[in-house]
Specification:
183 residues, 2 domains, globular, single chain, alpha+beta, four-stranded antiparallel β-sheet, three-stranded antiparallel β-sheet, Outer Surface Protein A, domain 3, 13 strands
Length: 183
């Protein structure tokens, strides 16, 4: 059995789970999410805990056992608390602003880059930071990644769009390698 799959998921107050055939539907104060149950996996609610089990033993099914549990745990967290990713702009003249629901980035290109948020995610801009939030972890991550890809951070120049708290690694130069500082 998967170690992650063995752990039950606590149903938070105000969140309800409904199993409709081969779908798991989670309702909460922030919205509703649903996902398809992987074949061979069983999902049930016991004593305010969601338990994910395998219907039979299989090497392939082991992989999906933990995945299904993690997806359900992320759905419960998403509809109750939500997810958020912060991005930081760094560079001379780099700006971000909102025009309606669209994000407009001035990040060193001849023209401004306009991004439409993925449905299910919302974007806010404050000073030199962009915050992507929503109830679906995958949608929030995809939107943050598409913003970051517009101008990937360069550790040597210190310019680009990076995640808040992201550490950029610099390679050791030739002179430092020859002395042995890079070993």
């Amino acid at each position: 059995m998967s170690n992650i799959g063995k752990q039950p998921v606590q149903l938070i107050e105000g969140v309800s789970l409904r199993i409709d055939g081969q779908k798991v539907i989670v309702n909460g104060p922030k919205g509703e999410l649903e996902t398809k149950i992987i074949r061979g996996i069983n999902v049930e609610v016991k004593d305010n805990m969601i338990v994910v089990t395998k219907k039979y033993e299989s090497h392939d099914l082991k992989k999906f056992h933990g995945l299904m549990r993690a997806l359900i745990a992320n759905m419960v967290k998403g509809v109750s608390v939500g997810f958020e990713k912060k991005l930081v702009l760094s560079g001379v003249g780099y700006r971000a602003k909102m025009e309606g629901k669209d994000l407009v980035l001035n990040v060193g290109f001849a023209n401004a880059v306009k991004l439409v948020p993925i449905e299910g995610s919302s974007i806010t801009v404050a000073d030199n930071s962009i915050t992507v939030s929503g109830i679906d972890k995958q949608t929030v991550g995809d939107m943050a990644d598409s913003i970051r890809k517009i101008r990937v951070p360069d550790p040597y120049k210190g310019k680009g769009i990076k995640y808040d708290g992201e550490k950029l690694r610099k390679k050791v130069g030739k002179a430092a390698k020859a002395v042995g500082a890079g070993a």
